[in-house]
């Protein structure tokens, strides 16, 4: 698990390898990840959008941007957390993801970024 705190918001990420399959005559490696967003600040905040940079071992980069997470824009009061599961496909058995959430502080209406720490994706059979 990787963790990081930015502006009082703690991000924790756990990863899992889900398997391999063929798509368009190419092998793909499926990974899952569970993200927990914990509000350790004194203010209520809302997650508005996300930005991901997905990199595989073949130097393929995919940028993913969008509103909310899994169709939600969670509001977190102090001490609350939100957990969701998602996944990605890579064309190699190794990769990494990193990014940030765009959030708003309801107390002062300031917008801010919360860093999602870089986490590695690796298929267990490919590790020495």
Automatic annotation (TrEMBL):
Coiled coil: none annotated. It holds the Pfam family DUF525. InterPro entries: ApaG_domain, ApaG_sf. Signal peptide: none annotated. Residues 3-128 form the ApaG domain. It comes from the Bacteria. This is Co2+/Mg2+ efflux protein ApaG. The gene is apaG.
